[in-house]
Write a structure and sequence with these properties.
Layout: E1 2-3, E2 6-7, H1 12-24, H2 27-47, H3 53-62, H4 78-92, H5 97-108, H6 121-135, H7 144-153, H8 159-171, H9 184-190, H10 199-204
Antiparallel strand pairs: 1-2
Helix pairs in contact: 1-3, 2-3, 2-6, 3-5, 3-6, 4-5, 5-6
Length: about 210
C-alpha cells in the first residue's frame, strides 16, 4: 500500500505489528499511529534523511501503546511502557538488539522536544510525525494533497478532543510520571485535584540542609 507517495511496510514483521496494535489499541490510536509513520516519512523525505522505513513504522505503531488498557496499573511513564512493548515484540522476532534499541529510544523520547532531532533518523522522525499530527508543527511543510491523502486513509474525526482525553485516561492513575514533561498540562486541564509539581520546590524542600 502506498499513501501520499509513502510505501507502508508490508513485511511479516510489519503486518504482525499492525495486527497487534489493531488488537490492543482503539481506532483513535491506530489511525493516529499510522499517520505518525506517514507524516514522519514525509518529513524524512523532505529533509533528505536516510531512514529504515520498517524501524520507523515500528516506532510509530507502538509509540502510544502505553496509553492502552493493558497499562492502566503501570506506574512508569507511558512512553516507557510502549517502548518496552516494542522491544519485547522485536526481540522475540529476531530483530537485533541495536535495531530494537533505536525503536525503544524513538518511543521513549517522542514527547521530549528537540533532543530526538539530534539522534538517529528513525528517532527524529517518530517525533516529527507526532509533532505534525498532534501539535501541527510542520503542517505547512507538507503539501496539501499529501496531507489530504494521509487523512483520507486514516481519518481524524474530533481528533484534538479525543486524543487529549486518551492522554488523560492513560496517565491520570500515575500523575507523578508527568513531572517535568508536557503531559502535566493534560492532567492540569482534565483531572480534578491534580497539583502540578514544581521543580524549584522539589529542590528547596529536599532533605539537603543547604
Amino acid at each position: 500500500m502506498t499513501i501520499a507517495d509513502i510505501k507502508v511496510p508490508d513485511s511479516v514483521l510489519a503486518k504482525e505489528a499492525t495486527e497487534l496494535v489493531r488488537d490492543t489499541a482503539d481506532e483513535l490510536i491506530f489511525h493516529h499511529s499510522r499517520r505518525v509513520y506517514l507524516f514522519g516519512a514525509l518529513q524524512g523525505n523532505r529533509r533528505g534523511l536516510s531512514y529504515d522505513a520498517e524501524l520507523l513504522y515500528m516506532g510509530a505503531m507502538f509509540h502510544d501503546l502505553g496509553l492502552t488498557e493493558k497499562h492502566r496499573t503501570s506506574t512508569r511513564r507511558f512512553e516507557i511502557d510502549g517502548a518496552e512493548d516494542a522491544k519485547e515484540f522485536l526481540l522475540a522476532r529476531g530483530v537485533t538488539e541495536d535495531a530494537a534499541r533505536v525503536v525503544w529510544e524513538a518511543i521513549a523520547l517522542h514527547t521530549t522536544p528537540e533532543i530526538p532531532t539530534y539522534m538517529a533518523p528513525e528517532i527524529a522522525l517518530v517525533t516529527a510525525g507526532v509533532e505534525l499530527d498532534v501539535l501541527g508543527i510542520g503542517y505547512d511543510e507538507i503539501a496539501d494533497e499529501q496531507r489530504a491523502a494521509v487523512v483520507a486513509a486514516h481519518p481524524r474525526p474530533d481528533f484534538k478532543r479525543r486524543i487529549l482525553q486518551a492522554f488523560n485516561d492513560g496517565i491520570a492513575h500515575r500523575p507523578d510520571t508527568t513531572f517535568g514533561n508536557i503531559k502535566a498540562d493534560v492532567l492540569a486541564r482534565y483531572t480534578e485535584g491534580y497539583v502540578r509539581p514544581n521543580f524549584v520546590d522539589v529542590i528547596t524542600e529536599s532533605r539537603w540542609p543547604e
